[in-house]
Amino acid sequence: MPLPSDWSSPQWSNLILGRKSDKEWPDKAQLQEWLDISMRRLRQARDILRRAFVGMGPNDEGARHIAGYLTDWLLAGLIARENVLLIGPPGTAKTQIALLAYRLLGLSEACVDDQHAQLLEMPVEDIRQWHARSDAEQKVQKYFHYLLSRYTQPDEIFGPLSLEYMKKGILVRINFSFATGPGVRGLFFDEVFKASSSILNTLLTLLQERTYFNWGANVPADAVMLIGATNEMPGQFGGAVPGVAERGEDFSFLYAFLDRFSVRLRVPTLSFGSDDGDVNNSSMVNAVNKAWQREQSRFINDDDFHETLLDLPVRPEERACVNDLLFAGRAMFWDDIDAFDVGEVKSFNERFINIALELMKNNTDPSMHQITWTISPRKLRSLKKVALAHALLCDDSFTAGRLIKSPDSNELGIFNLIWDSPEAEGDLLRKINPFI
Predict the structure, then answer these.
(1) Structure pTM?
(2) CB distance 267 to 287 below 8 Å
(3) 261 and 98 in contact (C-beta within 8 Å)?
(4) How far apart are CA 242 and CA 73, in angstroms?
(5) Element (H, E) at 187
(6) Count of alpha carbons within 13 Å of 29, Cβ hemisphere only?
(7) Quick one: which of 183, 215, 179, 177 has its CA closest to 195?
(8) Which of 9, 50, 77, 210 could disulfide-link 84, Cβ–Cβ 3.0 to 4.6 Å?
């Protein structure tokens, strides 16, 4: 039995997330089949994302390192509902990678188009009208994209304050189509370390607990995925190492915010070199050619990633949606679905803990000016989720009802993605190599 015709609807999203819904789960055999279909669609999105950029897929020279492919870990992070940080110099397509990932999951950008213009006419003067507007907004699942700067104000991210409710002594943000708005499932913040402390501190609970303050209390956001991008990591103490922090704003200022990003993905550096000495076969030239194709599509179709450019499946029902990703994440923990071989997971856990024990010896300690990598209960919980999601995503032979024999050494490469300073990346690799 195929997935329901309305599988991409918010009603199924709410059921998967354990929230109120009018949908009901089928029996275990059907759930297994649904997982098979969802994973096939997600692997298709994975392959499209690999091909869309140079240096990130199996056909690119040097793309696979000890941790695996960047695009695979990005999607694994989203399946695990963990924050992912893209790191690379300007012009390396960090923004396009993030936005394409969301588009491949069927999310549209949160904006005021013709459809939303009608919603703007709906009054929100009392709580009942607010709920009616929220229900209408949730019918469209979307993502929020914003470039942060030192001058970014909370209103730009969370929405303006309602003057009417302020007169009544209640703090309410009109957040429709903003980061915490109804129906906003994915967030993308560019230049995440450039924002002021007022923004970063406000974002901490959204990054970790997925809650925000509104109507006089902390309430859950609809957002379940968050991608950040940066040109540079936080600087060390007093600017001793180049980075974002200015004089008087040392690593400690941004450490809590950085630690919310469990996985740090460095966008590959491209060059004009090639094995045969022909510059036309180099990664740089190939990247320029792909960028030119996207620019051509933008001029002709007003779309950087038109369907013809991405070679998307013709039938919409074959394409991935956000509920495939949410369902895969739930399947990792759900007793009603057999996703992993218990023995293999037990063996993986032992090796996982042994690596963590080794890395604890050189854990980041800002008080001692030691910036390496962070091992904590929260970090290990996050890394294990992402590793399991990676195993599920990368097992191309996975079929319904068959336990996969992952995770394995490939997933232990997750530890190579947790460095707090680029200078520590080499030491981190040397420490985990013997365990993989």
Answers:
(1) 0.91
(2) no
(3) no
(4) 27
(5) strand 184-190
(6) 1
(7) 179
(8) 77
Helix (H) or strand (E) holding 211, with range, is strand 211-214
What is the structure's pLDDT at 148? Answer: 94
Q: Are 189 and 260 in contact (CB under 8 A)?
A: no
Model pLDDT for residues 65-74, shown as the tens digit of each residue: 445 689 999 9
Distances (CA, A) of 141 to 1, 15, 177: 25, 15, 10
Q: Which two tokens stand for residue 342?
A: 């218990």
- DSSP alpha helix (H) spans, 163-301: 163-167, 197-208, 251-259, 283-301
DSSP 8-state secondary structure symbol assigned to residue 218:
E
SS3 403: coil
Q: Which residues touch 44 (CB under 8 Å, ≥6 apart)? A: 313, 318, 319, 320
212 backbone dihedrals φ, ψ, rounded to 5°: -150, 165
Which residue stretches of the chain have pLDDT < 50? Answer: 61-66, 237-241, 246-248
Q: How far apart are CA 232 and CA 158, in angstroms?
A: 25
Residue 250, pLDDT score: 59
CA 158 to CA 396: how far, in whole Å? 40
Residue 61, exposed/middle/buried by CB under 10 A (0-12, 13-18, 19+)?
middle
Residue with tokens 């997330």, as numbered in its chain: 17
Q: Could you tell me the CA-to-CA distances from 149 to 54, 109, 152, 210, 427 in Å, in that order? A: 29, 20, 5, 22, 32
Distance CA 57, CA 71 (A): 8
Max CA pair span of the chain:
72
Phi then psi for residue 283, to 5 deg, are -65, -35
Question: How far apart (Å, rounded) are the C-alpha atoms in residues 111 and 117?
Answer: 9
Which tokens belong to 221? 């956001």
Provide φ and ψ at 276, rounded to 5°: -95, 5
Alpha helices in 302-420 (DSSP H): 307-310, 322-331, 342-360, 377-394, 409-412
Nearest one of 79, 97, 42, 48 to 266, comparing CA atoms? 97
HSE-up (13 A, CA, CB side) for residue 333: 14
Concatenated DSSP letters of 115-155: HHHHHHTS--SSHHHHHHHHHHHTTS-EEEEEE--TT--HH
Q: CA 230 to CA 318: how far, in whole Å?
A: 33
- The whole-number pLDDT of residue 123 equals 64
Please report the pLDDT score of residue 238 as a whole number: 40
Q: Using DSSP, state whether 429 is helix, strand or coil.
A: helix
Position 397 scores a pLDDT of 74
Q: What is the DSSP string of 247-273?
A: TT--HHHHHHHHHTEEEEEEPPPP-S-
CB 327 within 8 A of CB 13: no
